[in-house]
Amino acid sequence: MIAPFLALVCCSGATLQSQALDLIYVTKGDRYQSLDLFFPSGEAKKRPLVIWVHGGGWRTGSKEGGPWRALIREGFAVASINYRLSGDATFPAQIEDCKAAVRYLRANAGKFGLDKDRFGAWGSSAGGHLVALLGTSGGVKELEGASLGNEGESSLVQAVCDWYGPTDFIAYRVGEQAKSAQTPEALLLGGAIDTKAALAKMASPITYISKDDPPFLIAHGLADRTVPYNQSELLHQALKKSGVSSELVLVPGAGHGNLGNEIQAKVIAFFKEHLMK
Q: Which domain range does residue 135 map to?
């Protein structure tokens, strides 16, 4: 259901924008399958869109908040999405929701003044995992969730920014951690990784990399004790090997969280390069 109105609000930097909140992006969906859509000021036109996917270990978090507000001042529309959390549904529900949100936004691009050929995705941690999977798994029917609506639309994105997301679950959880049913990944998969190896591979963005994937910007803190930075190195190396444009930025001293203003500026420049015409 599309919200019946667009509200005019003021965001930081005194930039006026309109917004449409709590849009349900699947047929008979609920609050976990909703998104907020924000637009820069000025005359409505076919704007590029960046889709923000929140983190929280696939267990917590919501579409409220995120580091995307500067994109609006640069002329981008932004959609911040919710998705089903692991306490409510196991994988692949989360990526199915993300793909359904992309299809919904494409189906309604004309109503919202979006350019359906210029969609980017950005996420952190669990959200970084999901946007990386969006970028690499285009055309993978098992992850599409076509029954969630707008089956005729594409779920492809044209640029991906992954902040410190897990990319290869088998390489990430080894030894005793692979036997645990209580890690965030195990809760996502519905069981310990060593008992869910096929599903763990299915959930790993690195599994699907091909030469036609969109360009990636990957950023990770060298002091991250939650997701080791080699997860980003593995993704970057595999993308480059397949001929995909990828830039990896490793941030000295940064843990699992804010990577600093320099990285924010690189994100804006990246999306401008690949989505602005």
A: 7-168+204-275
